[in-house]
Design a protein that fits this description.
Domain PG-1098 ferredoxin-like: 278-320
CATH class of the largest domain: Alpha Beta
Shape: globular
Helix content: 25-40%
Number of domains: 3
Pfam family, one: Thump_like
Domain THUMP-like: 321-391
Length: 393
Amino acid sequence: MNLSLLSKNIQEFIAKNTGASLTKLALQKNPFPEVDWILILNQIEAKTKAKDKLPTWFATENIIYPSKISVEQTSSEKTAAYKASLISGKSLIDLTGGFGVDDYYFSKRFEKVTHCEINKDLSEIVKHNFEQLQITNCYFFADDSTNVLNEMNQKWDWIYIDPSRRNDAKGKVFMLKDCLPNVPEFLDFYFEKTNSILIKTAPLLDLSAGLSELKFVKNIHIIALENEVKELLFEIHNHYSGEITIKTANILKDKIESFEFVLGNESDFPTYNLPQKYLYEPNSSIMKSGGFDEVSSIFKINKLHKHSHLYTSEELIAFPGRTFEIEKVISYNKNDMKTELLNQQANITTRNFPDTVENIRKKWKIKNGGDLYCFFTTDKNDNKIVLICRKIT
């Protein structure tokens, strides 16, 4: 950690140039020759990234930022705050502390939080920042978390782990065993130190793949921010053997859309119907959950088709996703398309449909945008249809 970055003049320069073009700044002469110009530019870039994602850090004086990548990979404050609301207790140890955003919010729910970070420089940065943020119940260890767990030799109320990929060559689909630490391999060891573990994974992880590698899973939390899935949380408790509940949350500016269901509940039977007055499109956290039949059963609305994942009803309901009023339903054929949508402006979505949005726009000369929303989909009778709608929420 370079403490010279904390000089008053450099901090004022960083604040003044937050959001400025780094390309232009890089061509300027370094006004602080005693400090590496790249370090200063990195602080400006990282602070710019933090403005919306980490407003508490952004608004606090004398914060030191790690690399831009560390800021990009860390939890946002909104997802960290939601995550911390799920658990509480006397003690938590974070085995993969990183930039410490999660631990900042855990510190408000636990009497004591221990931050493990194998990167010594990053550990020092987080310790320094927590002093600026006036967090006094966090303790920092720049060491491998396995060593910390062994040396401290105590029981924790919770262990929190955010494993990192160690082999990007394996592509988008990955297993927990391909991450560091290898949670499946260390699980029995962890349960010697706690009875409750919260594991954060990237949104790309398949839920069934996670369940195949873990045991004692009680809850799976799927967290989206402004309709983009950001993280999955596997909540496991030693020797738990009951039902697994999927809990979804879509964090919006003014509310949180929540939905939950019990995995494999045989009483959740969907109903099907042709398009009625209203159309519902689930938010991204529900789409990730795979609970499509449960949406129909719990909200008592009808699916359009087994594979369409769009829902309809005659009466308007409050729904965790987008809601539309259906103005017209047309068959997907040349005559109807020429009459209704040729050369028009509309927002297009495809669900269980053989053509892409790009091809549909090109074929029928449909411009993007406007107040019209068109869903190209398949109904319960396997007919290709277009739902022409106006958005309600």
